[in-house]
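Re-running the complex after MR caught last week's input typo. The corrected sequence lines follow. Everything else is unchanged.
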Amino acid sequence: MINVSKFFLMRASLILSVFLFITLFQNCGQFTAINSSSEQLSPNHPPIEVKVSSVTRDRMLLGDGFFVMSVFRDVFLDETSNNDIINFVEYVLREEILSAQTEFGRACSVFNDGAAQNCNYNIFNQSIAMKSSSSSLREAARLQTCQRLVNNDYVLGGLINKVKGSSEVPNSTSIAKIVQLFFPALESKDEYVQPLLKLEASMAKGSEAVIDRWRIMVLSVCEEPGWQLL
Amino acid sequence: MSKEKGKLNNISRRDLLKGGSTALAAFTGLQPAARLMELMVKDLAVKKTYAAQDDAPSLFYMPIFLFGAPARWCFDQMLATKESDLSKILTNQMVATSLSSSNGVNNAAVYRTFDYKGVQVPLLWNYEAQTSEGTKSLKSLLDHLIVFRGYGSGADGHTNNSSLQLSPVPSSGSVSGVIGDQAKSLFRVIQSIGFPYTGYNSPNGNGLTIVNYNPNENLVLSLLKSFRKNPDTRNLASLKDKYKTNYEDTRLVFKKLSKASLAPGDSLGIDYQKALQKIESSIEDLSSVWQQLFGKYQTLLLNAYKNRTQGITSLPVQVQSDPGTEVNPWAVQSFTETIFPQVGTDLRDTVNNVNVDHMAAEFALAEYIATRRISAAFEMVLTRGADNIAVSTQRTLEGGNLTGIQQRSFSTVFDQHSTGSISTVFYNTLFFQGLAACVLELVQVLKSQNLFSSSYIQFVSEFGRTPRNTQGGSDHGFDNMISSLITGVHNSKPIIVGNILRDGSGGIINGTYSGTFGYKSSTNVNGKNLMLGPASVTSTLANLMKLPSNPWKNVADPLVELNSGQLNIKASGEIV
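Corrected-run output:
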């Protein structure tokens, strides 16, 4: 009996030691990951020098192909979009974004229905960048997408219905809504609405058709590259 | 903490952006007017940066991948490079550069060379191509040739060895990847088909641009598709142009607010400007440019096939007998079967109606990219030679039995397991003299535009081939690899580095393969005897290209070094 108890005691001690050992390291990991400042650590922990890597500073974090396509869908489609509009938007995305997938980075997901197409028919495609980075071709593909979508009256009409409210022409409220579709995080409305209102006023003065005034309004926000930044 | 964690697990695009804006709000503390002024100054700086930027890459690198690994003894896998080496060669008819005849008909494959500036080279290099500058001998390419031989990986496999050639150390990136990361050109790296086995690997994580080949398609137009001026959106462009000043004012604000300007150099903004300018500027008439380039290379290639084996024989290459399946020197491997041409067939007649459009399109695209310097690297991938080679056959490998006469149309396949000795030298000579003629044309164009001194054209395949003793084919040569480079940094005579064994049968299955065929041996590099691997080649490339750092230096020393414009050969190249 004594031997058996000793045996269990030893096993229990061993299990407890392993548990404490693992827990200790898990805690360290959590602290390091969540708290970026050494002041927040327990005094028992050694001070951690936090360095900002030059890579972090020099490289922008850009959304990948899925992100960019998802923004276009968010902006130009909603539950009221009919099949023709959805098909047109998807067609343009496929032609412009998917066909330049290697420029957008990580557009290849084996868990997606279109895995074969997304991965250029090879799920081990090494040619697809693991990170997203900026390139002229990527920007050209994005600009073409903006122009083709905005140029389609039906696609544009869906977006206008989403933002116009009671006014048939662009105003500060609808312009702010357009901007927030692309830049959901922007808050200083006046700053970005003013130049757009000025653009709208000059187009109104130039007697441009109302739909063209909307077109240019949406295009000016869509073409801005910054909405791809995370 | 659990709340934060839960949020992270269910993060949406909007949450993510919202998180970013908090930091942004803290960052931007200026009043609107002052901020606008700052933006304008910054925008001017960006435009200046862009204007001052030299977009043309400092070098142009073009690996030509021959995926499948054709036998290259008739081309650049040079064995006996000194006159005294010729007597050392142990014969295997699969390892041939020419044909020999009796009774007015070619009936054997032989190894023959000629002297070029003290170096023995295969007869193919005598071929005279009809280039845009007139009739030119391929020999002029030899002045710029560096051959790497006698190296290996020790393991079989097409895809792994293909990737190893230009990316021997995965963490170091591939040659194209490293070059592309430094380029500021319109494209970083372009690849002719979506082919994952070139080992393309960018240390910075950059992607490459893929141009898929489709018959009758203008590949330059496909490449520049995203930069086209879209006729459907012409009205939109003119409307935008009409209100240009107001339109650009909005951009100044967004640029700041969306933190695009926070990144040093504003690379996103610069790429945006470049894309916009490229779309708005009228691109040259790509249709006539393409027709001219494609037509030029198509003619070059068709001439190479029409002249048949000008450099090596003018006699019929006639099938003499049907010796059976495994020992047939006239057999040809196709993608689906082994074809045994009917007795009496003159192989020269089988190429009367070849289709060379694929290769012509690749070279047309290559010349466009190289001369416009729109990319630092172009990976040309060829998985076959000419198409539409027509032959009558009376036997198939599957059955091995004689059948009724059937017609076959096939492509020059590179993985030539059951292509016999005579067919190997015949079809590969045609293919390589066409390929070399295209490279000669490209080199001439680059020279005329003073671009050749910074150009590097490499012939790459996953390995060399190991010749069967039966004359009936050749198998994978993962320990007798071969690669060669044509570059403007070298201009004197062919350089051949890497020792090879006189008797290649020593390292592999005795009795199945024998002769001198390029099997690796230890090579003296900087006074040390070493076995060479693919990193020896990439390390040499990095040195010759004067890359800011050589990612392969710690793995392998360069075999040839460029110092103060002078090439120094650091490795031996003997038959031992």
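None of the earlier attempt is carried over here. The CA atoms of residues 80 and 158 of chain A lie 8 Å apart. The longest helix of chain A spans residues 2-34.
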